[in-house]
Please model this.
Amino acid sequence: MSWHILGAGSLGSLWATRLARAGLPVRLILRNPQRLAQYQAAGGLSLVENGQSSLHAIPAELPDAPNAIHRLLVACKAYDAEAAIAQVATRLEPRCEMLLLQNGLGSQQAIAERWPRARCLFVSSTEGAYREDDLRVVFAGRGQNWLGDPAAPAPPDWLGELARAGIPATWSTDILARLWRKLALNCAINPLSVLYDCRNGELLRHREELGALCAELTELLAANGQTDAATGLESEVLRVIEATRSNYSSMHQDVRLGRRTEIGYLLGHACATADGLDLRLPRLHALHRRLRDHLQRNGLPMD
Ligand code: NAD
Ligand code: KPL
Model:
């Protein structure tokens, strides 16, 4: 069964090239004829790993290609994912599987609701990749992928294919807890790194503010039934800051490069969930407002 990859950007290319190099059938779905022509002229996707570049001539097609889709890896940004799937919706087999690689929360639930017959697997990834060029991706950080299905606890029977392809994957019976924990970490670290325009380590100068945010995020997770994700949040935030002290957060990099952020699926989702639960979280809302103002001043979308 073919793996269709929707979103041949950083993570999508990292998955596609590893699957293809293990001899598994992979097909890329590219946005439009210009991108397909550009891809064909380049001769494939390049993956740079440990300083070595390799070219992978993976078959590519347009969203309106005639073949059916059984397994779709959705590797677009959270704000593009649903619209991208809609473009291939008529090709989805009724019981197809969709792996949703998006950071944050909100996009996965919207997709699962809109395509209820598909099996939606939510993925939380700590692997790192970036695009050196349009079709050239650098594997920048080893990590882990947790996969899970909030609607059904049994793992799919193809996890071994990922192992064969060298893609680290662990089945999680509580993927929402993992995604909420990551969301909380990102909400504590990323917006402040943008507002103070600093590397993660420099946030340790703002311990009081970090502590107050972690307290509100802990309250939110607990009120939302995510008690495991709430446990020890502040110590983990401090540990992650320490471990990534000389890095700029992904949101900081997006803003610096003038790219849209995924704020709507991080702080936006946290604030909307708090409102839905009638929780008063003034620090979190104030941070959301400050970040939105900052994005607006920089000419970037506020959601
Ligand atoms: P990216 O911007 O590098 O890639 C997204 C790709 O989707 C782009 O190539 C874009 O052209 C394509 N796309 C958008 N709409 C499309 C459409 N309608 N049809 C076809 N293609 C379409 O993004 P990324 O860094 O790979 O991130 C993807 C998701 O993974 C994000 O939610 C991100 O937060 C998450 N993530 C990324 C990393 C990382 O290291 N890059 C790590 C963990 C999680
Ligand atoms: O995931 C991150 C990011 O930069 O997006 C970390 C390093 C955890 C900071 O929130």
Notes: The first strand starts at residue 3 and ends at 6.
